[in-house]
Predict the structure.
Amino acid sequence: MEQNRIVWDGNMAASQAMRQAKIDVVAAYPITPSTPIVQNYSQFVADGDVDGEFVMVESEHSAMSACVGAASAGGRVATATSSQGYALMIEVLYQASGMRLPIVLNAVNRALAAPLNIHGDHSDMYLGRDAGWINMVANNPQEVYDLNLCAFKIAEDYSVRLPVAVNQDGFLVSHTTEALNYLPDDEAYKFIGDYKPHNPMLDPEKPVTYGAQTEGEWHYEHKMRHEHAMYNSFGVIEKVLAEYKELSGREYKFVETYQVDDAEEIIICMGSVAGTTQLAVDKLRAEGKKVGLVSVRLWRPFPKEELAKYLGKTKTITVLDRSAPLGSTGALYNEVAAVMVDNGYNAVLLNYVYGLGGRDMTIDHLTEIFNSAKECSDAGKRVKPLIQTINLRGKELSFY
Amino acid sequence: MTEEHLLKGWEEFEPGATLFSFEGKPDQEVHHENNSVQHSVADWRVDKPVHNKEFCIDCQFCWVYCPDTSIIPDVDDKGKGIFGHIDYKHCKGCGICVDVCPTNPKSLLMFADHLPVEEALRQWPEKEEKK
Amino acid sequence: MLELRWHSRAGQGAVTGVKALCDVMAHEGKHVQGFSVYGAEKRGAPMNAFNRVDENPIIDHSKAMKPDYVLVIDPSLVYTDIHYDIKETTKYIITTHLSKEELLEAVPAFAGKEIYLVDCIKISQEEIGRAMPNTPMLGALMKVSGLFEIDDFAGSMEKLLYKFPQKIIDGNVKAIKRAYAEVK
């Protein structure tokens, strides 16, 4: 397919995908670093480029509430938020997923206060982990654009009918301009398809109640129906990503891998650090070191089976968590550790807490991490602390 | 007690716990099993409201306030909206209609649920004199 | 990979300059990356912006770089530390009204460095009508780096600025060409 080449940052990529999806309603309360997404969209509305409504509300709680209202009324709906705004949205995130409303949220990941920080880490994404949303992670503006288009199609599939969050690292992706390819408007829209409302509240021919109370006799059944839909979504996500590859030539997988086949030390991470890690892998491979990278694309539902394929033969696995777990190992580490136990694998596991509040993670840092893992591989056991820090000032700090 | 037929398995529910009002089109007036019309709350009642049309001024306050839509309005020969009757299948005996009734004496009063309406009307109090 | 680091004050258009360079290079088929280091955004606060340009996709998302060019678009920033993470071949293009001798005397740290001077503030004030040193700096960069022929580059910038009034576009094109001619 003939595609246009353009220079966008992650925020503009999200806005443009939202424009091409012909959304009916965007309700938002802008917050750094996601502000430009809805700012751009409101510009599209003002310029008459889109037919949708932009609703400016008084808080993120209201923003997601308005999205829930518009989606249950039968509209295609999207919004964006970050950090504190994401935290304020949390209550309504559970409402949206429980009501099975296919809303698309662009979550531009940013640290949670205190102390106040506008830069990228994954605290907010981890906070929304159990809210019943499908969560995908985009590592650069191209992926933000592509995954946004896919998000609408996945969310709206009848067997899924779940909201989808597309996560991108604040500033490192959202405010980084890169060249990318985008589909012509009509092709992008044709891929997503017309919105087919399911049980819309504004249908006078079929009055419906949303948000009914379900006490003990029903609640469990409804939640497990939700859980079932979440697991059903694996197949749909796979299908949509395959269709998108057919159309655009760009391939996305539940977990992206690089040089893992014979790797003895593997780093598992999420987000924009994956690209930098890939360069560290190249550098160490050139020195003859057997290192590899696994980047998790699908955070929820978590692709346990897919991930297990790559972890059976390696010696040491280092999991990078861009959020302070504050009292345990990181959330991604825990997922990986569970996969290891489930499959009877017994590589050495290490956990790094890195990049908080936008702290830089360079090729040199990643090389250092790989080298540290190598010491465990050589010893055949964990000779390093379980939770370590990198690029942190002060005395060396580690836990367990 | 929950009626057995409503206790479905997880796979039988609509996604998102949505509930419908009607089977088919609304104008066919076939109520869905989840519609509250299908479920009586009469057994919650200890006292029931009784209406005395002798004092009623058809102000419709009771119709507005009833939380269970159990005051059923009617129209008179001239087309004016009037009090019709009480839906004792859906009245749970909360007494709000009595509370909001503005007449003296009240045109709606609570009586023991087992007391026949005719007997209740015989026991109706006199107008209270303002002091 | 070509790497550039901009030293600017918030509000002087470094981010716009970074994006403009990204745009022009991307249309030449190059892979580009442009980003900046934001703090609490206050007009006038010193800030950095960065460009990466390469033949291959740019997947490094760290801020670490050893720039080929350091672009300084505010005259007062030469007195701050702009010499970190540089290599021997790093070239400086500096907005200043000083001569090379005067600058070396004022800031001895520039001794032995390859520096190019151009007064982007004055050029933009005279040609565009306000102190917007970003586009003239790109003109100076074209001269020093030889990345593009100046007419091709000015033409690309003209297209990029299409949303602005004609007067602003013409002013920018003139400023770019003048900085190209005046940088030493």
Summary: Chain B has three helices and seven strands. Chains B and C do not touch (no CB pair under 8 Å). Helices of chain B lie at 61-65, 96-100, 117-122.
